[in-house]
Specification:
The chain is an alpha+beta fold. 29% of the residues lie in helices and 22% in strands. The chain has a five-stranded mixed β-barrel. The radius of gyration is 26 Å and the shape is elongated. The two termini are 36 Å apart.
Length: 189
């Protein structure tokens, strides 16, 4: 038994040692070039001002990442480019380290977003988004947003995964309890 434990420890130590010797790629943080206001508008598919009314970060449990998607719903007041509904939804990522824009619910923003092939809009820290205050210079023109649209509900995948894991843990606990009970039962005479 001691020999098996020692062998396992040796294998783990060797694997860890080899892993430390392997080349790795450096970690990268978000790095954006400075954009002028005109460049930001020119690069974007849509540009609008709106209040972030909901910032939805899906629950991923212990497996969360700075690159996890975040969906922000805006109450749009003015559109400067593109066709934007009164209740626009834009996706970014969770953390500014991976170029996600840190939208805060209740704050008014100038948003620059791009349309993806699946029809969703995405934006990042590098796209020229900014909070709107009295000193913010807004693009020229501006028009009213289109009518509000009904978005499909998103599945609460995190809750479903947690429920499945909890159910699995209950089944395993029940089987272990049953096995112990059988071992502890006195033999039939």
């Amino acid at each position: 038994m001691a020999m098996r434990w020692l062998r396992s420890l040796l294998v783990v130590g060797l694997l860890a040692g080899f892993g430390a010797l392997l080349p790795s790629t450096p970690a990268c943080a978000c790095s954006c070039g400075a954009l002028s206001a005109e460049e930001a508008v020119a690069r974007a598919d849509v540009v609008f001002v709106g209040v972030a009314v909901e910032v939805t970060v899906p629950w991923r449990g212990p497996l969360s990442s700075s690159g996890d998607p975040v969906t922000v719903t805006f109450d749009v007041s003015t559109v400067y480019k593109g066709d934007v509904p009164a209740n626009a939804r834009v996706r970014t990522v969770r953390d500014s380290a991976t170029c996600g824009y840190p939208f805060v619910a209740g704050q008014r923003y100038l948003v620059h977003a791009d349309r993806r092939t699946d029809g969703t809009w995405t934006t990042s820290l590098c796209d020229g988004n900014q909070p709107v205050d009295a000193a913010t210079v807004l693009p020229a023109g501006g028009y009213s947003p289109g009518p509000a649209v009904a978005y499909p509900g998103e599945w609460p995948w995190g809750v479903l995964v947690a429920a499945a894991l909890a159910a699995g843990a209950l089944v395993v606990a029940g089987l272990l309890f049953r096995a112990r009970r059988r071992r502890a039962a006195p033999p039939a005479s």
